[in-house]
């Protein structure tokens, strides 16, 4: 048996759905077919509210492995339940995907190649590896994401080069988790529901002595938010009012956490007022955005967690 086939047999993918379109469904079905050939598996976790028989959405019934809630319980719970399901079925490594993420043709080869290298040359790494991550291209902003590195009192946003780089955190979609370390690091924080879930998990892994490596030859297209806002010729990430609620609420929760570096907290505090002004002045339905942000701030201050009522 080849090394690739051996890896695939302990290799699963979790795909989180929320009202997926045909493109997302077809991609997940293709992925399922590829994994089944090699003995691995794909589990779809569906946060879509509409359900059919046996509490399953019509979409989820098309997959061999699926989890359906009948309501939106948030990205963190979906990831946690999907990872637990994969572990129960023998997974030792697990990919995480949002429904709108599209790996390129070399993605899986490059990520598994990096995994094999880590397994073979583990003693070369000063820190155990929590996860591998690709370089993502945001289709809304039309640019590649930066590699975030926190070093002491400084935070760097580096452009991906041609060699493996460490990162303090990455987006969850496309990440490849080493499940032998997952229990020690801990689950994704379900109290956050959606925003900052990936950042929180990465920083928690850092604080426990683990490292995240970015694989520059693994590429992923991803869609952050909705149509961006143009402010003085600069495109700014935009979201729905409900997402702005979670952003402003959860950033306040993040500021309280002892394992979150001070430089990250300072940077987020500096950006809070400009972001509030931009989303108040340049979005459609501005009153909805303002109300959501103010409620998020208040709920953050009063320590409200979980799903917004």
From TrEMBL:
InterPro entries: Nucleotide-diphossugar_trans. It comes from Vibrio chaetopteri. Keywords: Glycosyltransferase, Transferase. One of its GO terms (molecular function) is glycosyltransferase activity. SUPFAM superfamilies: Nucleotide-diphospho-sugar transferases. Belongs to the glycosyltransferase 2 family. This is Glycosyltransferase family 2 protein.
């Amino acid at each position: 048996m080849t090394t690739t086939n051996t890896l695939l047999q302990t290799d699963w993918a979790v795909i989180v759905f929320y009202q997926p379109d045909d493109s997302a469904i077809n991609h997940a079905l293709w992925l399922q077919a590829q994994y089944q050939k090699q003995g691995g598996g794909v589990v779809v976790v569906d946060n879509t509210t509409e359900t059919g028989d046996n509490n399953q959405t019509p979409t989820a019934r098309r997959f061999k492995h699926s989890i359906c809630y009948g309501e939106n319980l948030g990205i963190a719970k979906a990831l946690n339940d999907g990872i637990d399901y994969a572990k129960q079925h023998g997974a030792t490594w697990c990919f995480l995907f949002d429904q709108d993420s599209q790996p390129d043709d070399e993605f899986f080869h490059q990520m598994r190649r990096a995994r094999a290298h880590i397994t073979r040359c583990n003693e070369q790494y000063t820190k155990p590896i929590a996860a591998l991550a690709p370089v993502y291209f945001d289709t809304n902003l039309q640019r590649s994401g930066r590699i975030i590195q926190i070093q002491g009192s400084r935070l760097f946003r580096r452009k991906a080069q041609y060699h493996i780089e460490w990162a303090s955190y990455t987006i969850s979609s496309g990440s490849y988790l080493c499940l032998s370390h997952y229990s020690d690091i801990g689950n994704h924080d379900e109290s956050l529901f959606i925003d900052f879930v990936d950042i929180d998990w990465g920083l928690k892994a850092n604080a426990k002595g683990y490292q995240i490596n970015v694989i520059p030859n693994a590429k992923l297209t991803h869609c952050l938010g909705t149509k961006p806002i143009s402010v003085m010729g600069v495109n700014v990430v935009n979201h729905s009012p409900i997402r702005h609620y979670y952003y402003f609420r959860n950033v306040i929760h993040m500021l309280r956490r002892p394992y979150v570096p001070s430089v990250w907290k300072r940077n987020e505090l500096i950006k809070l007022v400009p972001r509030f002004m931009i989303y108040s002045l340049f979005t459609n339905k501005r009153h909805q955005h303002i109300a959501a942000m103010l409620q998020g701030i208040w709920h953050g201050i009063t320590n409200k967690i979980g799903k917004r009522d």
